[in-house]
Design a protein that fits this description.
alpha+beta; eight-stranded mixed beta sheet; five-stranded mixed barrel; 17 strands; elongated
Length: about 550
């Protein structure tokens, strides 16, 4: 009779499993020897004692700190949410107002913490930022005001948090070259966080402020890509460079208004929802308008001309312009800010063209004079030479520009529209020959201009139209407009545009209209080319292009 297998109990299985688990394997997968096991036990005991010692020291340190009298306890902390509960007589000083002459004075500032650097448990530095200015602040433990806990608190403030600081202005032993305000630093007496960052920053702001030259010199510097910056535009706009760029953009608008207002022009505000394409083309955004359809205005062209027919004399507008062009170049947007103007004249459209030229000279001169600080900040990250221009802008005719390009080896017909590379080449040739970055190109071929452009009276193949160029690229397009109703109807028919779609427009000229001319300026382009920046998205606050509609 065969022998029956011995039954193994569940308890025996568990005991065996426990013994297997207790076997410690070496790197080779084999059980450790007794000698190796003893060595391991000693190492574990040593690590245990070390951790116990560290824990004991931390506990003792915490006890000592708790026992310490924090003489700075009232001088730091997190402020309650500002709900406008009270008004004080506090006089606040902007970082840009700090000067060496203020040494010894106590000031109150509000700024963002761009960065912090602890030197020891008793001292730390903060970099403060406000607008286009940065300044260094220092906390150092003393017997009366700044405690070690206060220094520890300051170093823990998250970057980009907003703080209110009371500090003494002091002269540093050497200028603080890393800050725009380098002749002074702030010796902090009080620091309170008024708005704290509570999320991880998408990038370090300093990384978004490196110049191309600095990155080329130091390969370890971090770069922030344009898409990352635009996807986090609110953060990106905090850089002192961007702050300066958009102050300059605002300045261009201010100077545009100043000049034209002084010339007697009236600022107007025209509709952006219209019933027909304002330029007579297909690059227009069609929208639903109740039970019908409408379009976003490609320009205020038809309405500013209507104002001339209404005897406004000279008009201008600063407003959005919409272009449904599927173009993803570095100089195109689907929505941009247009600086438009239209003026009646007495005898010749050059009266208006020359006035526009003088307007640009006024803008360029005043930017360098009144916004020198902002230009300095921008040029630190995006180096460029100030533009060259004459008091009386250079005027070239289109045929002369074609001849200049041909002499350089470019192939183009007399009436061909210039390509972007040809425009850039022309800009370089003009600078070499005439010593200017700014010029007016007059008498464009009629075939490349809109239907409302006045033909040249001598050669109808050309027109009374002009473009303005800066650093070899177009910043404004303009012309004398057709103001005679019968001639206008002929031009509409020549462009094969249904007359009924422009019925209200033509009606204004049937009522009689003075001769007039004008133009449209792209604000972002002016700022881009003036500052020598390579991508128009960097001079648009929240850019819109075929691939970007957020944020």
């Amino acid at each position: 009779m065969a022998e029956q297998p011995q039954q193994v109990s569940e308890q025996q299985v568990n005991e065996l499993a426990q013994k297997v688990e207790e076997v410690i394997l070496g790197e080779d997968g084999q059980p450790l020897s007794k000698k190796a096991l003893k060595k391991r036990e000693k190492e574990l005991e040593k690590e245990k004692k070390k951790q116990e010692r560290l824990a004991r020291e931390a506990e003792e340190r915490a006890a000592r700190e708790a026992a310490e009298v924090d003489h700075g306890v009232d001088n730091y902390g997190r402020s309650a949410v500002n709900m406008s509960r009270e008004k004080t007589e506090t006089k606040w000083t902007a970082l840009g107002e700090l000067t060496a002459e203020m040494a010894g004075q106590l000031v109150h500032v509000q700024a963002r913490v761009q960065g912090s650097r602890p030197v020891s448990g008793k001292m730390c530095f903060l970099v403060l930022r406000e607008g286009v200015e940065t300044a260094q602040a220092v906390l150092s433990v003393d017997a009366d005001t700044v405690s070690k806990k206060m220094v520890k608190f300051a170093t823990s403030i998250p970057n980009e948090s907003i703080v209110s600081i009371t500090a003494e202005v002091v002269k540093p032993d050497v200028p603080v070259e890393s800050c725009t305000v380098g002749t002074v630093e702030l010796r902090v007496r009080k620091v309170f966080v008024t708005s704290e960052v509570k999320v991880t920053l998408p990038f370090a702001l300093e990384d978004a402020m490196h110049s191309e030259e600095a990155c080329a010199r130091d390969a370890t510097l971090n770069r922030v890509g344009l898409d990352t910056r635009l996807n986090n535009r609110t953060m990106d706009l905090r850089t002192i460079t961007n702050n300066a760029i958009f102050k300059i953009q605002a300045a261009v608008c201010q100077l545009f208004r100043e000049y034209l207002t002084n010339e007697g022009a009236t600022e107007i505000h025209t509709p952006k929802i219209i019933s027909t394409a304002s330029e007579g083309g297909s690059n227009v955004f069609k929208i639903t308008y109740f039970k019908g359809a409408a379009y976003l205005a490609q320009s205020p062209q038809l309405y500013k001309q209507a104002c001339i027919a209404a005897d406004f004399g000279k008009v201008y507008e600063i407003a959005p312009v919409f272009r449904a062009e599927d173009s993803n170049t570095q100089r195109h947007l689907t929505e941009y800010v247009g600086l438009d103007l239209e003026c009646s004249f007495r005898e010749h459209y050059h009266e208006v063209m020359n006035m526009i030229g003088a307007m640009f000279v006024y803008i360029f001169k005043n930017l360098e004079l009144r916004w020198a600080r902002e230009l300095e900040v921008v040029r630190r990250q995006y180096p460029s030479e100030p533009i060259k221009f004459d008091e009386t802008p250079l005027r070239l005719e289109y045929k002369d520009a074609v001849a200049l390009l041909r002499a350089h080896g470019e192939e183009m017909g007399d009436f061909d529209d210039m390509t972007t590379p040809q425009e850039k080449t022309l800009g370089r040739l003009v600078r070499e020959k005439y010593g200017t970055d700014f010029y007016m190109l007059d008498k464009f071929p009629l075939a490349v201009r809109p239907f409302y452009t006045m033909p040249d009276p001598v050669d109808a193949r050309y027109s009374n139209s002009y473009d303005f160029f800066l650093r070899g690229q177009e910043i404004m397009s303009g012309a004398q407009r057709v103001h005679d109703a019968d001639m206008l109807k002929e031009r509409i028919a020549a462009h094969e545009i249904p007359l009924e779609s422009l019925e209200h427009y033509v009606r204004a000229f049937e009522l009689g209209c003075p001769p007039h001319a004008g133009g449209g300026v792209g604000l972002e382009r002016v700022v881009m080319f003036y500052l020598g920046i390579n991508n128009i998205r960097q001079t648009s606050l929240f850019p819109r292009d075929p691939k970007r509609i957020d944020p």
